[in-house]
Design goal:
The protein is mostly beta strands. It has two helices and twelve strands; from the N terminus they run E-E-E-E-E-E-H-E-E-E-E-E-E-H. The longest helix has 9 residues.
Length: 181
């Protein structure tokens, strides 16, 4: 097990710091074909924060180009929808992205915990290898997200790095194990 902890004070030139976040990453390998990266983020609003609609995200992954859909890989969500055309903007508990690399198949899934604000967030996905569960592109108030001073948002994710396809890695079972811990 490896544990990484970090405290960040978000800064902007010439302006007050709007957010303080504390992140904790716990990395484990329950088998020779699975690595878990459990992520816990506490974000405290140090002032009133307004986030305008953006495709930038708080948590994301970018797959190696040779695993991307554009190179023969597959992106699939918990509902079985595939690739950017079917997953973009769709809310889902998780997305797995996998593809061939030499004689093997490798993948990476991102799972959102049901306790997360905005769960399940819609996904910003791209066939070139990008995936992010983000409310920031689909703000609930229309054009922005308003977060009052003092508010704390806790976000939990599990990243599963795996051998094999989504089915071979049992990603649906991995999600059930994650949410019951």
């Amino acid at each position: 097990t490896a544990i990484i902890s970090d405290e960040c004070i978000w800064t902007r030139p010439g302006a007050a710091s709007p957010i303080r976040d504390i992140r904790r990453y716990v990395i484990t390998s329950p088998s020779d074909k699975i690595i878990h990266i459990d992520v816990h983020i506490d974000m405290q609003m140090l002032e009133d924060v307004c986030i305008m609609k953006t495709n930038h995200s708080l948590f994301s992954a970018r797959m190696a180009a040779d695993l991307a859909v554009t190179c023969g890989g597959t992106m699939i969500n918990a509902e079985g929808l595939k690739n950017e055309k079917e997953t973009f903007g769709k809310s889902s508990a998780w997305i797995d992205y996998y593809g061939p690399r030499g004689p093997y198949t490798e993948g990476l899934a991102i799972m959102q915990h049901p306790s997360n604000k905005w769960y399940p967030s819609p996904w910003f996905t791209r066939d070139y290898g990008f995936m992010s569960p983000t409310q920031m592109y689909w703000p609930p108030q229309g054009d922005y997200i308003s977060l009052p001073k003092g508010m704390v948002i806790t976000l939990r994710y599990r990243v599963v790095v795996h051998a094999g396809t989504c089915q071979e890695a049992k990603i649906a079972e991995e999600f059930e194990n994650f949410i019951t811990q």
